[in-house]
Structures are given as structure tokens and as C-alpha cells.
Automatic annotation (TrEMBL):
Highest taxon of source: Bacteria
InterPro entries in the cross-refs: cNMP-bd_dom, cNMP-bd_dom_sf, RmlC-like_jellyroll
Taxonomic classification: Bacteria, Pseudomonadati, Bacteroidota, Flavobacteriia, Flavobacteriales
Pfam families for the chain: cNMP_binding
Protein name in the entry: cAMP-binding domain of CRP or a regulatory subunit of cAMP-dependent protein kinases
The species this protein was found in: Flavobacterium nitrogenifigens
Domain Cyclic nucleotide-binding: 10-112
UniProt cross-references to PROSITE patterns, sorted A to Z: CNMP_BINDING_3
Length: 188
């Protein structure tokens, strides 16, 4: 749990009182590799912190799944659009490895906002961080080549990217696994 506090304190200073309220609401859950954490049609009820693991967000399709993001150790994660709107998602979040999450429910987060001095600040800063990541991804899809998108992902998480199957990386970049193979041969 200290990892979560350290992460939050990168955003703002937490008093011990605020931390005790926040941490008392956290639930630790473990998920096996290939487990769906959130499935299409469900409403997201948690904001989670990844202690260990890799998550893949994708839109399921009959022909091929379309991967649109990965989330790694030490990051917050959520089907955030569903979390704030209370509407079902049209995508799935899957554990790509054995994963440990620390989770706070929607209702408990509302209590944290009301009971703590920094709750709203943390919520706003976390939302801003998610927005920036989403905007960066969208701009990359519009402006960068597939090779540059691969290099960006490799630069951001070099020790973890090797744990992601090539077919998911290719989908994320928007190309076929064969095209990704050619890019990797050129780079290495």
C-alpha cells in the first residue's frame, strides 16, 4: 500500500488522517493471467491501482480484437468512462499476467471526496492524468507512423513490453503481426 501513497504524493501531500481514510477503503484483489477484470456490458465499479501486472484494454470482435491500451505496474486503471457515467462499457479489460490490484469502489470514492481534505484534488489530478494519456494516444494514432508508435511504447515501458504478445502489440499499433515483425527486424 505504501506504493499507492507514494504515487498519490507525487500529485499532492497527504496527511496521515487523509491517508488512513483512503487506505481503509482499499480492497486487495488478485487476478490470474487471461482473466477479464471488466467485460463488455458491465459497469465499472472500481478505480484500481496496479501493484503488479499488466492489463490490456480491447474491443472484442468476431474477426480480431482491437487493443487500444496497456496499463502497467504502478499505475491507476479503470474503465473510467463507465466509472464516472455509471453506464456499461463496450470493451474488455484483461490481465495479461498474474495481477494484483488495490481497488476503491465508486461509492467509497465518493465518501473519500466528502471526508478528506485532498480527495477532490486527487480525483481531479488522476482524471487529468487519464485525459493526457488518452490525448497522447489519439494524437500518436493521427500523427505517428506505426514504427514510431512501437518505439514510443518501447521507450515508455522497455522492461515490460517483452511480456506482451506480439499480436496485441500489433493491434495496439494498428497493424498486422507480420508488419510488426518487419518493424522489429528493421529496429533490431
Amino acid at each position: 500500500m505504501q506504493q499507492i501513497r507514494d504515487n498519490l504524493e507525487l500529485m499532492t501531500k497527504l496527511s496521515d488522517e487523509d491517508w488512513n481514510i483512503f487506505s481503509s477503503k482499499l480492497i486487495r484483489q488478485e487476478f490470474s493471467k487471461k482473466t477479464a477484470i471488466l467485460q463488455t456490458g458491465q459497469i465499472e465499479n472500481y478505480l484500481s491501482f496496479i501493484e503488479k501486472g499488466i492489463l490490456r484494454y480491447y474491443v472484442p470482435s468476431e474477426n480480431k480484437d482491437l487493443t487500444f491500451t496497456f496499463v502497467f505496474d504502478g499505475e491507476f486503471t479503470s474503465g473510467y468512462d463507465s466509472f464516472i457515467t455509471r453506464l456499461p462499457v463496450n470493451y474488455t479489460i484483461e490481465a495479461l499476467s498474474d495481477t494484483i490490484l488495490w481497488r476503491v469502489s465508486y461509492n467509497d470514492l465518493q465518501d473519500i471526496y466528502a471526508e478528506t481534505k485532498v480527495g477532490n484534488t486527487i480525483g481531479r489530478l488522476a482524471s487529468e492524468d487519464l485525459f493526457i494519456k488518452k490525448s497522447k494516444r489519439e494524437l500518436s494514432l493521427l500523427n505517428d507512423s506505426a514504427e514510431q508508435r512501437y518505439l514510443n511504447l518501447f521507450t515508455e515501458q522497455p522492461h515490460l513490453i517483452q511480456k506482451i504478445p506480439q499480436k496485441y502489440l500489433a493491434s495496439y499499433i494498428g497493424i498486422t503481426p507480420q508488419a510488426l515483425s518487419r518493424i522489429r527486424k528493421r529496429i533490431y
